[in-house]
Amino acid sequence: PSAQRLLTVEHLAVSYRGIAAVNGITFHVDAGELVGIIGPNGAGKSSTMHALVGAVRASATTLEFDGQRLVGQPTERIARRGIALVPEGHNVFGRLTVRENLRLGSTARPSSTGLADDLKWVLSLFPILEEFGDRQAGLLSGGQQQQLAIGRALLAAPKLLALDEPSLGLSPTAVDTVFASIERIRARGTAVLLVEQRAQQTVAAADRTHVLSEGRITMTLGPDDAQDSTLLMKAYLGS
Ligand code: ATP
């Protein structure tokens, strides 16, 4: 295969007090790909994301990123290796300004090379962050805070951007902004792992989308499946 393998996940399992939340899932992300994970509340999507960055204890036969094992690595080292997670919710430092939030993102970069270019690019992706640079992040709307959270993650210069339900709670316009930005991020060469509940938009945008149900991958869909509402419905019903 010519594609460069970035993330390999084989038989990943996460459980909380003996109860399985993720039950042996296998998937991969190649460099530059956009891979989706959809599924209802409680399906195990967030647990999967947290397992990748070492935020929950997980087991796997293989869990490798960029040729190195992830299991047992501290979260900070994983970030430096090139996975940036934007967790669910608007994860900004509300008392700090937009600019200060962005600066914090850049502290997770492996090196300062390319920082000026990346900053310029992030500000062109989300012009609002330039306009409101001096504003307290907590005063931004939900959609603007999500742009800031994504922008901050991008300044860590990740090879893989992991987004956990970035559209959650946003207005329809803000949702469109987020999805449009994801396409541009991917077009610039950063791989994206996108966890979402918006099945149709995710399936349409991603190279492949795994349907997660009760901790297992029950289906994998391609972009052509996005127009098949019966199939998407079935995916959600877990049949
Ligand atoms: P959501 O969209 O609601 O975030 P999800 O698909 O991301 O759902 P998870 O958050 O991974 O699902 O949760 C999977 C299962 O694990 C659920 O049954 C949830 O109640 C349980 N769970 C998640 N975190 C914990 C925890 N810290 N302790 C105990 N159980 C947990």
UniProtKB/TrEMBL annotation:
GO terms for molecular function: ATP binding; ATP hydrolysis activity; branched-chain amino acid transmembrane transporter activity. CDD domains: ABC_TM1139_LivF_branched. It comes from the Bacteria. Residues 7-239 form the ABC transporter domain. Signal peptide: none annotated. InterPro entries: AAA+_ATPase, ABC_transporter-like_ATP-bd, BCAA_Transport_ATP-bd_LivF, P-loop_NTPase. Keywords: Amino-acid transport, ATP-binding, Nucleotide-binding, Transport. Pfam families: ABC_tran. Transmembrane segments: none annotated. GO terms for biological process: L-amino acid transport. Coiled coil: none annotated. Belongs to the ABC transporter superfamily. This is Amino acid/amide ABC transporter ATP-binding protein 2 (HAAT family).
